[in-house]
């Protein structure tokens, strides 16, 4: 039979481990969201640049 102090230490250790795991998962989640937003913004900027280049090319050809 484990002593009460040992059980409390094990519970505290388990709580600390769960907290650390939760923090790591939270950081990874928000980092992933930021990466997705950054990639979407980059893709949108690339599309806008391609459209601008296409319009510029049409203007030069039509001139």
Rg, Å, rounded: 27 Å
Strand pairing plus helix content: what structural class? Answer: mainly alpha
Number of strands: 0
**Average predicted confidence as pLDDT:** 92
Classify the helix fraction into a percent range: over 70%
Number of helices: 1
Largest β sheet strand count, sense and barrel closure: none
The percentage of residues in β strands lies in under 5%
Shape: rod-shaped
Query: Could you state the order of secondary-structure elements as H and E?
Result: H
Distance between the termini: 92 Å
What ranges have pLDDT less than 50 throughout 5 or more consecutive residues? none
Notes on the structure:
The chain crosses the membrane at residues 12-30. This protein is mostly helical. The chain is 94% helix and 0% strand. The longest helix has 59 residues, at 4-62. The relative contact order is 0.06.
Which helices and strands, and how do they pair?
Blueprint: H1 4-62
Features:
63 residues, mainly alpha, rod-shaped, transmembrane helix, membrane, transmembrane
Structure in a nutshell:
The protein is mainly α.
């Amino acid at each position: 039979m484990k002593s009460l102090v040992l059980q409390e230490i094990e519970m505290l250790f388990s709580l600390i481990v769960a907290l650390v795991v939760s923090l790591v998962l939270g950081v990874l989640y928000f980092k992933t969201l930021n990466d997705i937003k950054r990639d979407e913004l980059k893709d949108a900027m690339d599309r806008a640049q391609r459209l601008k280049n296409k319009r510029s090319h049409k203007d030069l050809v039509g001139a």
